[in-house]
């Protein structure tokens, strides 16, 4: 896919939109202090920007304006059917950010949001309060790097650190246990230096072949950086999950995935992994339609997928071949009951 | 195409001269053109501005890569002859606020702009005009938020009687910064057009749907496969020739066509 050149675009966070009602809150002012040259534009509500008619997600993603807002209404959601629940009964997700600094060609957010602007909800404490209430009733398994990659912006927003601290504190006093999953494609070791180790914070690294990273996961860390980071976290005592999901079809995919696995097994002791997941790319019909409109020259968007009950996936022969190939390769390195294969 | 929207002829004149725009044969609103730029003069006030914007974007079949730039003078408390790129438009008649995207590098200072429907001889708005809110609302029906910009130059601090004498100076004095902005927009538009996928596969489709004896459903599948193959730069003529040599194509009936289509699909992966 061609991308717009960055020469004409403002740097990320050159413009920050701030809801009037939060402009004096410490969480907002401390973020703004980190961007002394940004133009600040005050707004009533983040939706005044985020939900405008007729926006161009792709152009907006080339510049990354930021919106600081307060999250209202529901803050924790039940896991969606296209997500791997890892057999967790109380499987939820929350979004303290919307959109992502990275730009994966296959990212479903392009189909989900009207806007490419990044939204950061500054009232993380309110999300924590809602989690506390839920923990009174039952344990909670919560994906917190959902609809974004929070570790991509850890140096700025420190969301990973805040979540780790919260998990450590709440699990000392709550009747039920909180486990969180932080999904990432970030391999910046310094992100993890200040994090308190917790057996209830699962770092889930998306692992893709170098070919896929170079062509379809723009801005993300290299394969070796992700693997090194995963390995350091295992050594530090964090549970680490490797997600071979989404597998992306490309010419010579078998060679690419085999090379990837050779590198992964050389860097990581698979028996120390918490678990791994395997799944090929899938997307809802509605999101794919929007993605095709936005990316008229994308081989991922225009792959001739099969549609099963509103979800597009690779034709069954290709899907099975890809997933079974990786499953059987992985089963030489990790016990089968630790491999979660995506099932509809 | 870059659409320049100006309220008055004196605002447009320096731009017409700069880009050597020629009067277009158009009776409704004065329009000036070259191959890259179309400039329309709307007249003052919200209704005229909205009608002229919608008119010109419809008449010249605005494309999604095009840009709409409203360039003109305004009143305001900011220094006279200062030029500003607008990041927020507050429509004081309706109370609504509009936000053009601020994605592109420019040397302009930025400001918010209040937009109303009457000439003000006093006020304390940083910037005030009578067209921007209407132009935004009309343009957004045709073009995305990242392609609509507003460049406003302060002509007076709410003393409308002084405006006439300074309009030309306001535009001339800022023409190089305006030109730079227009040039960047043009380059971005060119890049967007370059990223558009070619429709080469459509020629192939018209021939092949007969060879495959396609039903309507099969036509959709064939179109999808061809589009994917084109984007992925797969040698479609090579595959088709091979199928012809092996007498898989052309098909005699729909049943054969189905098998041939599956054969074709498998060749792509
Ligand atoms: S890292 Fe995840 S959220 Fe970010 S662009 Fe890629 S797929 Fe989307």
What labels describe this entry?
heterodimer, A: 344 residues, alpha/beta, 8-stranded mixed sheet, 5-stranded mixed sheet, 18 strands, globular, B: 269 residues, Rossmann fold, 10-stranded mixed sheet, 9 helices, 10 strands, elongated, binds iron/sulfur cluster
What Rg of chain B, in angstroms, do the CA atoms define?
Answer: 26 Å
Global shape of chain A: globular
Number of strands of chain B: 10
Radius of gyration of chain A: 20 Å
Q: Specify the helix fraction band of chain B.
A: 40-55%
Number of domains of chain B: 2
Average pLDDT rating of chain A:
94
The number of strands of chain A is: 18
SSE order of chain A in H/E notation? EHEHHEEEEEHEHEHHEEHEHEHEEHEEHE
Unreliable stretches of chain B (pLDDT < 50, length at least 5) are: none
Helix tally of chain A equals: 12
Assembly annotation: heterodimer
At CATH level 3, the topology of the largest domain in chain B is: Rossmann fold
Strand content of chain A: 15-25%
- CATH superfamily placement of the largest domain in chain B: Nucleoside phosphorylase domain
Secondary-structure content class of chain A: alpha/beta
Largest interface: A-B, 38 and 37 residues
Show the helix and strand layout.
The complex is a heterodimer of chains A (344) and B (269).
Chain A: E1 15-19, H1 26-33, E2 39-43, H2 47-50, H3 57-61, E3 66-69, E4 77-78, E5 91-93, E6 97-98, E7 103-104, H4 109-112, E8 118-121, H5 124-137, E9 140-143, H6 154-157, H7 159-173, E10 178-184, E11 201-206, H8 210-216, E12 217-218, H9 223-236, E13 240-247, H10 253-267, E14 275-280, E15 282-284, H11 285-294, E16 306-308, E17 311-313, H12 316-330, E18 339-341
Parallel strand pairs in A: 1-2, 1-3, 3-8, 5-9, 9-10, 10-11, 11-13, 13-14, 14-18
Antiparallel strand pairs in A: 4-5, 6-8, 7-12, 15-17, 16-17
Helix pairs in contact in A: 9-10, 10-12
Chain B: E1 2-6, H1 9-18, E2 22-23, E3 31-33, E4 37-41, H2 46-59, E5 67-75, E6 83-91, E7 97-98, E8 109-115, E9 128-129, H3 132-139, E10 148-156, H4 163-173, H5 175-195, H6 201-211, H7 216-231, H8 236-245, H9 254-268
Parallel strand pairs in B: 1-4, 1-5, 5-10, 6-8, 8-9
Antiparallel strand pairs in B: 2-3, 3-4, 6-7, 6-10
Helix pairs in contact in B: 1-4, 2-3, 6-7, 7-9
The complex binds iron/sulfur cluster.
Residues 100, 102-104, 107, 109, 148-149, 185 of chain A line the site of iron/sulfur cluster.
């Amino acid at each position: 896919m061609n991308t717009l050149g960055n020469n004409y675009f403002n740097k990320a966070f050159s413009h920050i939109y701030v809801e009037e009602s939060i402009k004096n809150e410490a969480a907002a002012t401390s973020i703004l202090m980190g961007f002394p040259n940004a133009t600040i534009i005050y707004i009533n509500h983040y939706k005044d920007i985020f939900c405008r008619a007729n926006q161009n997600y792709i152009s907006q993603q080339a510049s990354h304006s930021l919106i600081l807002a307060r999250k209202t209404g529901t803050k924790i959601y039940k896991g969606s059917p296209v997500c791997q629940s890892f057999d967790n009964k109380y499987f939820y997700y929350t979004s303290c950010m919307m959109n992502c600094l990275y730009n994966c060609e296959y990212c479903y957010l392009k189909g989900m949001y009207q806007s490419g602007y990044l939204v950061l909800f500054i009232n993380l404490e309110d999300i924590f309060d809602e989690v506390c209430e839920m923990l009174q009733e039952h344990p909670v398994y919560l994906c917190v790097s959902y609809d974004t990659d929070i570790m991509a912006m850890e140096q700025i927003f420190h969301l990973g650190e805040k979540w780790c601290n919260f998990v450590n504190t709440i699990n000392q006093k709550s009747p039920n246990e909180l486990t969180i999953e932080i999904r990432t494609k970030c391999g910046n070791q310094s992100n993890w230096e200040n994090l308190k180790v917790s057996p209830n914070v699962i770092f889930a690294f998306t692992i893709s072949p170098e070919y896929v990273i170079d062509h379809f996961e723009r801005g993300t860390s290299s394969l070796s950086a992700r693997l090194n980071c995963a390995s350091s976290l295992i050594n530090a005592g964090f549970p680490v999950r490797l997600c071979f999901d989404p597998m992306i079809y490309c010419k010579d995919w078998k060679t690419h995935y085999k090379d990837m696995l050779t590198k992964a097994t050389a860097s990581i002791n698979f028996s120390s992994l918490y678990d791994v997941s395997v799944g090929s790319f899938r997307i809802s019909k509605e999101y794919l339609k929007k993605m095709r409109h936005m990316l008229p020259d994308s081989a991922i968007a225009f792959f001739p997928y099969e549609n099963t009950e509103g979800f597009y996936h690779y034709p069954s022969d290709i899907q099975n071949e890809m997933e079974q190939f990786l499953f059987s390769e992985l089963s030489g390195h990790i016990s089968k009951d630790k491999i979660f294969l995506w099932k509809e | 195409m870059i659409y320049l929207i100006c309220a008055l002829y004196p605002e447009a004149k320096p731009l017409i001269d700069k880009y050597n725009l020629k009067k277009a044969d158009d009776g409704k609103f004065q329009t000036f053109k070259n191959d890259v730029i179309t400039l329309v003069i709307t007249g003052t006030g919200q209704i005229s501005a909205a009608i002229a914007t919608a008119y010109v974007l419809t008449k010249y079949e605005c494309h999604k890569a095009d840009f709409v730039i409203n360039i003109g003078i305004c009143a305001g408390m900011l220094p006279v002859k200062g030029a500003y790129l607008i990041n927020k438009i507050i429509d004081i008649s309706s109370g609504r606020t509009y936000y053009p995207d601020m994605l592109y590098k420019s040397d302009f200072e930025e400001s918010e702009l209040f937009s109303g429907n009457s000439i003000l001889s006093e006020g304390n708005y940083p910037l005030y005009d009578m067209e921007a809110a209407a132009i935004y609302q009309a343009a957004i029906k045709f073009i995305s938020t990242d392609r609509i910009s507003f460049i406003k130059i302060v002509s007076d601090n709410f003393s409308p009687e002084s405006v006439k004498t300074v309009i030309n100076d306001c535009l001339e004095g800022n023409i190089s910064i305006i030109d730079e902005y227009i040039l960047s927009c043009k380059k971005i538009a060119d890049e967007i057009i370059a990223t558009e996928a070619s429709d080469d596969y459509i020629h192939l489709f018209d021939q092949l749907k007969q060879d495959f004896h396609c039903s309507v459903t099969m036509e959709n599948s064939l179109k999808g496969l061809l589009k994917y193959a084109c984007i992925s730069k797969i040698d479609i003529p090579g595959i088709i020739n091979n199928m012809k040599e092996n007498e898989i194509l052309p098909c005699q009936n729909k049943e054969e066509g189905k098998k041939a289509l599956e054969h074709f699909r498998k060749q792509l992966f």
